[in-house]
């Protein structure tokens, strides 16, 4: 992986721990200059030191990705310190898990803000920079890497706020990819499964590190090579995709697809709809089950 991102400048949010930390370390090892963003200043600085101790270049940033003005400063700090920007990895996230019937407005708002608004804020400022570069005649070879989740693709019992945010991010990825390709910006999404502070609480037994020294399927570092490749110049032909990754497995989530329609050629009557729906459901390819069912 060494050298695949030589000279590229990458922002990684939520990089003080978990997946974000592994991404930042891997980008540093691959030659990128890394902006390590995390609201926990001590954790962000530790990641920076670890990158620097292996010969990489990195700076810490503690600004709030849900604040539009502070997100602008994250982008400008990357450019001021390293002279350019080539990629944003939107990784930061939180969980406020609760069954829908018991969920509070605050729990809903917090998760939507960190995940969905956080993806918008920093990406918006990065895109403004890249679009300006493009309009000035400079070659742009930029990357946005978004973080969705199996919860967003399939649903997850007790996580309606998280699932809604992550589903929104999947749709956002498709829109961004379609709109931004003209400027030299690719956008892909990721639905990783790994051992992090969020997943350990929900899936403690499944996420346990093996004690026998065998392959650690849920080690977050397993996801990093895919993210580094997506952030590199080598991924220029890949956009609008949503990858699922766990252990040594990589797959693509291939999205919603329409079944062949039943067309009456005229307005339906309400009492006719039941039979039509039954016929449509008999033709569909069953979706993956909602997590927890």
Overview in brief:
By secondary structure, this protein is an alpha/beta fold. The chain contains ten helices and eight strands.
How is the largest sheet built, in terms of strand order?
Answer: 3-2-1-4-5-6-7-8
State the name of the first-level CATH class: Alpha Beta
Q: What oligomeric state best describes the polypeptide chains here? A: single chain
Domain count: the total is 1
Secondary-structure element series:
EHEHEHEHEHHEHHHEEH
The shape, in one word, is: globular
Percentage of residues assigned to helices: 40-55%
Span of the ends, CA to CA? 39 Å
Identify the CATH architecture. Answer: 3-Layer(aba) Sandwich
- Give the beta-strand count: 8
Average pLDDT works out at 94
Helices and strands: which structural class? Answer: alpha/beta
CATH superfamily: NAD(P)-binding Rossmann-like Domain
Evaluate the radius of gyration: 21 Å
Work out the strand percent.
5-15%
> How large is the count of helical segments?
10
**Which runs of at least 5 residues are low in confidence (pLDDT < 50)?**
none
CATH-defined topology: Rossmann fold
Q: Sheet bearing the most strands, described?
A: 8 strands, mixed
């Amino acid at each position: 992986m060494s050298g695949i991102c030589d000279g590229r400048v990458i922002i990684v949010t939520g990089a003080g721990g978990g997946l974000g930390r592994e991404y930042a370390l891997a980008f540093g090892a691959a030659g990128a200059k890394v902006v390590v963003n995390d609201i926990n200043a001590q954790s962000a600085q530790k990641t920076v030191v670890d990158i620097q101790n292996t010969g990489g270049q990195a700076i810490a940033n503690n600004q709030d990705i849900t604040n539009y003005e502070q997100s602008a400063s994250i982008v400008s700090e990357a450019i001021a310190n390293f002279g350019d920007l080539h990629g944003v990895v939107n990784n930061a996230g939180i969980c406020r898990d609760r069954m829908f019937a018991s969920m509070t407005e605050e729990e809903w708002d917090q998760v939507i803000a960190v995940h969905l608004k956080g993806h918008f804020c920093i990406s918006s400022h990065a895109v403004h920079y890249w679009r300006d570069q493009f309009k000035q005649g400079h070659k742009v070879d930029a990357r946005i890497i978004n973080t969705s989740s199996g919860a967003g693709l399939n649903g997850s019992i007790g996580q309606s706020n998280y699932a809604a945010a992550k589903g929104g991010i999947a749709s956002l990825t498709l829109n961004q990819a379609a709109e931004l390709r003209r400027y030299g910006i690719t956008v892909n999404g990721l639905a990783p499964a790994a051992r992090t502070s969020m997943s350990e609480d929900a899936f403690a037994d499944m996420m346990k590190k093996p004690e026998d020294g065998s392959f650690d399927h849920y080690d977050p570092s397993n996801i990093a090579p895919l993210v580094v490749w997506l952030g590199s110049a080598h991924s220029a032909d890949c956009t609008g995709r949503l990858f699922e990754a766990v252990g040594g497995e990589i797959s693509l989530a291939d999205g919603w697809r329409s079944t062949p329609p039943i067309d009456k050629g005229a307005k339906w009557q309400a009492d006719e709809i039941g039979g039509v729906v039954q016929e449509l459901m008999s033709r569909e390819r069953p979706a993956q089950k909602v997590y927890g069912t």
